[in-house]
Amino acid sequence: MSTASAKVERASQQVAPGLEALARFGYASKGVVYGTVGVLALNLALGSGGTTTDSRGALLRLQDLPGGSVVLWLLVVGLVSYALWQLLRAILDPEHQGTQGKGLVKRTGYLISGGVYLTLAVFSARLAAQGSAPRDQNSEAQAASQVLQLPGGQLLLGLAGVALLAVAANELHSAYGAKFMKRMALTDRGAQYQGTLKRIGQVGVAARGLILSIVGIFLLVAAWRDQASIVIGTSEAMGWLREQTAGQFLLGAVALGTLCYGVWCIIQALYRRIKVLG
User: How far apart are CA 10 and CA 210, in angstroms?
Assistant: First the structure.
C-alpha cells in the first residue's frame, strides 16, 4: 500500500465513528418526524383532535411545543445527518449495492432521499430561526404541473408513478418477509425483544408502503388524465382513506402504522448495522 493510500485509509477510519454517530442521530430524527405525523393522524381517527399532515406539517406542530425551537434545531442537525448518510450510501456505496440495474436503482433512491431530507432540514432551520417558513399547499400538485408542461410530461409523470409503486411494492414485500431484520445487529438486551421489534418494523414499513401505493396510483391517474391537481401527498392520502367506507378505522390503522414506522426508525438508530467504509 502506498503512503498516500495508507493516509486515506487512516483518515477514513478516524472519521467513520463520527459519521456512524451522525447516521444514527439521523435515523432518530427521522423517527421523531414520522412519529409526530402518526400521532396527529391517530388523534384525528380517535376523535381527539389531531389532523392529517406530512413531514413539514409535523415540524410546524413541533414548533408549538415548549422548547420547540430547540427541538427544531436538533432536528436540523439530525435531518442533515440523515441526508448526508443517504448521499454517502448513494455515492460511495459502502453497502456494496453495485453498479448493476438493481443496485443503481437503490443508489438513485438514496440520492433522491438525501435531497428530500436536506430540503426538509432547510425548512426546519427557517422555522427555528424565523418562526415561520414558506410552505406551499399541495406542493406535490404544483410540482406535477411543472412536469406536465415539459415535453413528454405525461410520460415522465407516469414513470414517476410507476417508480413510486415499485418502491411501495418493495416496502410491502420487505414488511411481509421482515427482510429488514438482516440489517439489524441486536445486542443481548435487544435480542430479548426481537419478536416485538420485528412486528413494529413490519407494521411500520407496511403502512409506509400503503401510503406510497396510494400516492403512486394518484400519480398515474394524474398522468393519464393530464391533470396535475389529482396528485396528492401523504396528508391527502390519509385524508382520502378517511373518506372511504370505515374511513376512521382505515385512518387509525395507517396512523398507528406510521407511528410504528417512526418508532422503527428510532430502533434502527439503536441497532442498525451502519457500514460507513466500503
Answer: 44
- What are 145-159's pLDDT values in tens digits? 999 999 999 999 999
Q: Which residues pair with 184 in a beta bridge?
A: 272
Grid cell 428530500 in the structure block, residue: 116
Q: Is 4 exposed, middle or buried (0-12, 13-18, 19+ CB in 10 A)?
A: exposed
Cell digits of residue 10 = 487512516
* Separation of alpha carbons 184 and 189, rounded Å: 13
**What is the pTM assigned to this prediction?**
0.90
Return the C-alpha cell found at 130.
Answer: 424565523
- Summarised one tens digit per residue, pLDDT across range 81-121 is 999 999 988 888 888 888 888 888 888 889 999 999 999 99
CA of residue 272 relative to chain centroid, distance: 16
Write out the three cell numbers for 71. Answer: 427541538
Domain coordinates of the chain in residue numbers?
13-271
Radius of gyration of the chain measured on its C-alpha atoms? 20
CA distance 225 to 217: 12
